[in-house]
Structure formats: structure tokens, C-alpha cells
Task: structure prediction
Amino acid sequence: MKKLYLSSSLAALLMASALGAACGADYTPVTDARLQNPEPQNWLMTRGNYAGWSYSPLDQINTSNVKGLVPVWSVSTGVDSGHEAPPIVNNGVMFVATPYSQVMALDAATGEFLWRYKRKLPPGFAALHNTSRGVALYGDKVFLPALDAVLVALDAKTGKVDWEAKVADWKDGYYMTMAPLIVKGKVLVGVSGGEFGIRGFVEAFDAETGKSVWKSYSIPAPGEPGSETWQKPDTLKTGGGAMWMTGNYDPATNTVYWGVGNGSPWFGDQRPGDNLYTASTLALDGDTGKIKGHFQYQQNESWDWDAMNAPMLVDFQRGGAKNGLLTPQRNGYIYWLGRNADGSISYLDSEAYVPQDVFKSIDPKTGRPDVDLAHKPGTGKAAKFCPGLWGGKDWPYASYSPQTGMLYIPSNENHCNDLEGKVEQRIPGQWWTGVAIPDFHFSVDTKAGFFGELQAYDVETGKRMWRDLYSSSMNWGSPLTTAGGLLFAGGTNDRMFRAYDAKTGEELWHFRTNSGVIAPPSTFEVNGVQYVAVESGYGVDAAFQQTLMADLVGWNPDVPQGGVVWVFAVQR
Amino acid sequence: MAQDCDFSSLRLCRRRAMLGAATLMVPWAFPAMAEDQVNDPTAAPPQVGDHFVFLTGPNKDQPARVDDLELGGPQAQVYPADPKGLVRDGSPLNLVVLVRVGNEGLDEQTRKLSADGVVAYSAICTHQGCPVNQWSTEKKAMVCSCHGSTYDPKNSAKVIFGPAPMPLAALPLKSDSGLLIVAGGFNGPVGRQTN
Result:
């Protein structure tokens, strides 16, 4: 077999190994039809389906046999930092994205190595969040949004670069960490950089050619609808609104739902107005990217409470909706919204899933919060707010199980930040929020019995059905639910990967991995055998927060890093 | 790591450090840098005799003098500039921080490299390469704006908090009647490092 060394010569540049391409068998091209109706045995996209449920119809692994789950193979990714990507599987071929913008292709059943792509990041490039939340598949290609804001298309069989498209200028503070969304032959990616004074957007590229098809900004240009919510027009250009998490898609109406992040700088009084569309969900036309609708979770955003996660498409009766959007947001509230045929979004209901001291109330008609100004930080005006900037939950996905009718939320309580803003000169590419990291004044309630938790809510009634409390850890673990009645999740600093009974919350199985699991799991079937897979590799905000907790409450500041992909099956 | 590195010759040092890095699994190397340094003086590392210009603040683009810096901190971000005024901002790795720490309480190495109570360090965090451009008034230390790695400017920029695996490399200084001048190459590897 041909081997490519990671050469120590200075000529070692972009690396893609063609190792094992001949062993890779036939590769099944991914089509729009397949993405709209993904086969249960595959995991073709980040959240399993376009509705964003993080749910699998597979049930071979179930509550009665999960106790026999054992690792069947594993592989090192060879890199440190936070691993946040689910293994993507297409008919026996697994693709995993890692920090440093690398992709590995492996035989999903045996773990045999197929190929690897290693990006050469530009000299001097540094990422605030050195991670990847995954690849997307379409046709015969694998798409990776690289950290330096370049979209890379790889040949799925060989890992060789097919095309690259520059999405934004990393020197200005843009970067990319997300998994793309594929919509009708187009690769949709959004940018990060909300802490660097960028202006967020989503861009769609033709999957075959890499040409840009459309681009939609989260912050309107002067004169566009919504621009009147930026009372100082200059603040639009650096208003933030990063669109850094993968959207969801409704093929029936050809509507893309995408989350929009925090305002920039962090202190809303420096950019007076409601600041559309920061901290909002946008509904975009799949063909043109035109904004069809929106819902804003909080106005004049001042808590770093990104609305980064797109809502899940769930049909429920609550609030009278037939077609709904369901989303637990960073601000600590679950939202039930209406998903209208014209793309507009209606507010139906909301409920706090963690105690939150910023909203006095939420308007029952419009969903607009009434903010307690004592908990709204400003320039020269310190304010403490709970939950803190990491919110009731951060980017980790929620999961919806149609089997239990429950919404599962990885969340955190009993933490706060106390921030005071300054006016700062912006240096392109440098942190620009108005507050420095040493002045975050992150605090926790040391008398609290827990910090991280996994919660389950009944979607129709909004009643909390169960929760598991983590006394000595925050929770950065996205859950996966299955028709086997199970919920799989990691997220804690003890390196555990767990299986719960999704109905009752009883922990049925756990396995201590090499590092902290902060990636979403996936599940798939090859040759009649079901597997569960997850990347274990601590880092990024989970690790940073852990160092703060080490200072505050004595936790271990050094959860071991280093990525490993773990694949489990029931022992036979 | 580059233990046999001749630190007085920065180019040799960095090339060796890059080789060390390249044999690890993460190609965070800069293989083209050696050529760039020859062809592009703005990308060349700080040279003996260079002064510094401020990246930001009221004295942006002006030469850095001791009195421009606040005694006790915080640090100021600067780029080296050659005697003709050519600014070496062609490489992000040339970003430097100056701190006016004073003359008290410095460790021996820091005292030797300082001039008029000012020290200079690479501004590039050894953890993930972000700029160390924030300041902790509580700890009187430099803080990286990505993951909070904290470096003590009075004690060879050693790491006192956070995930950074190594201190920041120091740049020896001279003072020419208050104008700060580069007196030698970096005394260690610059940029993201691994243990």
C-alpha cells in the first residue's frame, strides 16, 4: 500500500493520503433524495436528519441489551484540542473531522484507515475555537469548512482536494468551525468571529464547482429592512451576528432555519437598538438565501447569549401549531414557535429550563422579553447575570425523540458572570468585545449540589420528566436518542460516555474513555450490526471553563487531551 | 523540541523548531518562512538595532519609548521596525509585547534582558497562537485573549495559569536614551508549542 509520511522536510505541505483507496469499495453518492429521507443505517448529516432531531430509528441496540455494549475499535486522531464532530457514515464509510481542520476516512465497521486530509493552516493563524463540528456529504464529495475560513471539497474516495473556496478573510477575525448544511446541491456554511467585530453571514456554494450561489448577512446593510434597529449606522459593520452553527431545513417549504450569534461588541449600549438579527433565528429561502422570517430571542443582546442553534422542526399541538419549531436557547428558555408556510416564524410559548435572572417576563403574544436592567451589563456599568455568558446551554445540540415525545437538553446551572464594558479600539483579527478575559468575574454557587445536568421535558406539556445532575462537572455533551429507547451522551469532565433509558432517565451503561466527550455521538449499521460512535477529545470552552472551576472549586484543571474515535457494539 | 538550537541565530532556531513540530502529528509548521525572510524584510524576525512601533493606542505607529509605557503594566503590542522605519508586520509571529515592569522583583534572566525597566516578549501564546494582549491587574500579568493563559512578565514570562505549555520567548532590549531597541534575537521558540 502506498504510504505518505508526514515528512519532516520543510516541503511538507498539504497532506492527503490515498492509502487504502483501493480497499474503499464503491462509494454511494449522496443525493438530495437521500438527504431528505436518510436511511436508518446511515448518519449522513450532523443531526441525523434535516429536522435536526439527533435521533436514530435504529433499535437493535436497546434498553434490554445496552449493558453488553463494548468498544469494538478505536483510532487516534493524533491531535489535541476539543473534538466536536459526530462521525458521519455513508454505507460503511465513516468520515470524522477533527481540530486543526483535518478529516479522516475509515471503514465504519472495522476501523481500517482509508485516507486523511491535513490542512496547512496559514502562518500566524490562531483560532479562538480550534475545533470542527463535522463534515457534510454530497455527491462524491466531502465538505469541510476549514478554520481559516476556506471551504474545502474533498474527493470522498481519496481525500484529495477537489476545490477550495475562500469564504472570508481570517485576518479580519473570521473563522469557521461548523459542519455545512447541504440544500439542493448547494453547500451552506456560516462564519464565526462574534468576538472579533465581524459581520456574520451564511453563504451557499455550488457543490460541484465551488462557485458562490448566494450570501445572506445576519446584519442588514444600511437601508435594508432591519437596519433601522441599529440606531448608530456605523455599528452595523462590526455588529457581530456570527452564524456559526449548522442550520436545519424544511424541504416542504424550501426554508433554511439558521441561528445567529451575539452582538458585537458584547455591550449593547455601544450599539443602541434591537440589533436585528443578532440573537435570532432566521428563515431563509433555500434557493436565494433571502430572509423570509425571523424570531429574536432578546433585543440589544448584552450577555453573549448567542442564538446559535437552529430550532428543531417538530410538529406539536402546544400553542395550537401544526408545524412547529422547538428550541432550548442559550438564554435559558425553551421556545415553542410556529413554522409557517411562507417562512415567517410565530411565537407560541416559552418556559425557563434553568433559573435565569435577566428576564422579568416574556410577552405572551410576541415573545419579547422584559429585561431587568439591574442584570444587563453596560459600558462602565457592571452587572451580574445568571446563568453566565455560557448560558443555560451552549452550542451542544438538544435531541428530540418522536418515540418518547421528549426534548432532551444538556444544560448548566448555578453559574454567573459579572461584566463591565469598556470602549475599545478594534484591531482586525484581535478580540474585541469590550471586556477582557481576566475581567469575566465568572462565579458559581459553591453551595449548589450540581452544575451540569441532562434534562428531559415532555414536548406537549412542557413538564420536566427527569434529569440527571452532575455534582462535579459542567455538561458539554450533545445527546443522541434512538428507537431502541436509549439516549447516549458524554459531556462531563470524568471522561464518561453514558447510555440512559430515554423514558425514565435511568443510567443503563457507561464507559470511561480517554478524554472528555464533547462531541455528539452518532449511530449506524453495517452488515446488519448496529454501532454507536463518538469522538472523545476535551478542549475549547469546556477545558477553559474547567480551569476556571479548578480555581473556584478545586476541580482538576487538566483533563487529558488527545482525540480518539470510539466505536461500540453489543457483545455477541 | 529544538534543544540543540542555537538561539543566538533566530533563523536556524526557528527552522529547527519547525522540524521538531513537523515530526509531531500537527503540521503547524511554517516551511516557507525561511525563504520569505530572505525576500521579504517585513517578515524577517526582529533584528538587532530595530526599534518598535505601537500597533494601537494614542501612539499608534509611533516609535516606542520607555515613557510611553505605563509603569507596572499593562503591556503594549508593538511590531519591530528597522532603522529606516520599515515595519516588520509581514509575519504575525513578529508581534511583540512591551511591559514596563520596573527594576524591582525581576528574576535574573529578565533583569539581564530588560532595559530601563522595560521587558519585551513574543506576543504569540504558546498554547494556540493567539495574541497575549490582555492584562490581569490582580495578578500583574499578561493574559492570552483565547483561553486565559497567564504569563508573569517579571519572571521570564513563565506560565502561572492556564493551558500554555511554555513561557513566551523574551527579546533582549537596549535603551537608547529611552528609545527601546532590539539587542538580540528571541531567546526561545516563538508561536504555538507542544509539551
User: Anything to note?
Assistant: The helical segments of chain B are 10-22, 33-39, 108-113. Chain B has three helices and ten strands. Chain B has one domain: 41-182.
